[in-house]
Amino acid sequence: MLVKTYCAAVNGLDISIVTVETDIAPGQSHTLSGLGDEAVRESQSRIRTAIVHSGYKFPNKAITVNLSPANIRKEGSAYDLPLSVGLLAANEVLPADKLDKYLILGELGLDGSLKPIKGALPIAILAEKQGFEGIILPKANAQEAAVVGGLKIYGMENLTEVILFLSDINQFQPATFDTQKVFLEQQNKFDIDFADVKGQQLVKRALEIAAAGGHNIIMIGPPGSGKSMMAKRLPTILPPLSLEESLETTQIHSIAGKLNTDRPLILQRPFRAPHHTISPVALVGGGQNPQPGEISLAHNGVLFIDEIPELPRSVLEVLRQPLEDRRISISRAKYNMEYPCSFMLVASMNPCPCGYYGDPTHNCKCTPGQISRYLSKISGPLLDRIDIHCEIQAVPFTQLSQMQPGEPSSSIRERVIAARKIQEERFKPYKDIHCNAMMTERMLRQFAEPDAASLDMLRMAMERLKLSARAYSRILKVARTIADLAGSENIQAQHIAEAIGYRNLDRGDWAERGY
Question: pTM score, two decimals?
Fold first, then answer.
């Protein structure tokens, strides 16, 4: 008897419907075709044992299974459940009349229990588009899939429950998830706040500008000055995720297996902080079984790289193309993948190997050659993609103990949101341009043209401070954001002056030390 069940193949963010064709005939052979990986080929032993432990007889006949279409890679153990259901239906243990209504996915334990899978949310989105009535999957993934309205999501504990449901013996209630309610209630709740940061007004101002314009930023300062502390609080002042951004971000985390089953929807902008020993593949994605990298997991959020000169040059250089294109294309012999990676890069570094160059309270022990080699680890093309350079000094204890709490994140966030709304209105006619950091050179001439006084100031600054040519457009982008925060339609001299102050690493004295 020939039976068809339906599941899905996850290849990056590309989800495809897979038809599991199962045929049972007299004989003793077992054939599986359709470009399945090792986990799919090993499913026979798991399925046999799970069926027996669930109280059913494994068909002792010739079994032929085809995973169609055969030209799509099938990876992972999520095919266990549809293969099992197909076998039992082909063996007439359960009826086949409902099998075309549902996508069926799940990994089987030897006792018949169902274990969670990756990619439940993007699979559910595809199932709704393809007109399926619902999905049958492990209970641990039910809430994640239920984020998609218009589908009946049945979360099952084990194979027996699936068989009873498909046989109309037991009725099960579909899982529900109130997306709008949870989204509105939880997205603005943070455990940390900028009010915890005492002092550092200039740095907090730079971070506010970065958040308002979507600018990449690097902080340079000695150990203990609060670089990491402030970077971790940046998501608390960024505009809240829209529902569309939330779903897009959640899908990436879902296929990577990074989604918390207790929180099936990502409600706050991601903050990823990879260790400096990270490999290029872990950063950008790929591998033998392709997975999103840290830059894609930071999509719509923040990628924080602490002590950026400590990363190998080969790792840093792979950031250049994603920072420019906001997408990463991964091409290997066996696959081609593309992941979104529109993130804010926040980097921090010491001014020298010992960390105390220019510090008023500590003596720097580094030689000029050591400082030059340390700073030169960040290439000019990478630095060119960072709009704001901010120097930071540690707050003395005598001042730290006397200071009042800083301005709360909620107040800063209100100003950031107001500036972003101005930019949204400005860039409405332009596809995929949402903030000032994304402006092209042509858009700079249209929206960030300085007046005569500002242009003179910019010219003098570039000559006196020996600013590089690449600093010009960066200054204009940042000045446009500063003007938006001030509610000014035109860029004025004070906006240019402040933006010039955020190009520290382009100054001649820094250039002499390695840049």
Answer: 0.91
Joined tokens for residue 365 = 């022990």
The chain-wide mean pLDDT, for the chain, equals 91
Tokens read off for 455: 């242009």
Contact 285, 297 (CB under 8 A): no
Tens digits of residue pLDDT in 200-256: 889 999 999 999 999 999 999 999 889 999 999 999 999 999 989 999 999 999 999
In the numeric block, which tokens belong to residue 168? 């109309």
Beta strands, E only, 75-194: 102-104, 107-108, 114-115, 134-138, 152-156
pLDDT of 290 over the 50 cut: yes
Give me the count of residues in the chain: 515
CA dihedral over 185, 188, 191, 196, signed as positive or negative: negative
Which among 388, 382, 386 has a CA at the least distance from the CA of 320?
A: 382
3-class secondary structure, 388: strand
Sheet holding 271-272, edge to edge: 271-272, 302-305, 344-349, 217-220, 388-391
Nearest-angstrom CA–CA distance, 430 and 373: 42
Cα–Cα distance, 515 to 71 (Å, whole number): 50
Tokens of 254: 């879902």
Q: How many Å apart are CA 388 and CA 501, to the nearest integer?
A: 9
Which residues have a Cβ under 8 Å from the Cβ of 207 and sit 6 or more positions away? Answer: 217, 230, 234, 237
Q: What is the mean pLDDT of residues 381-406?
A: 82
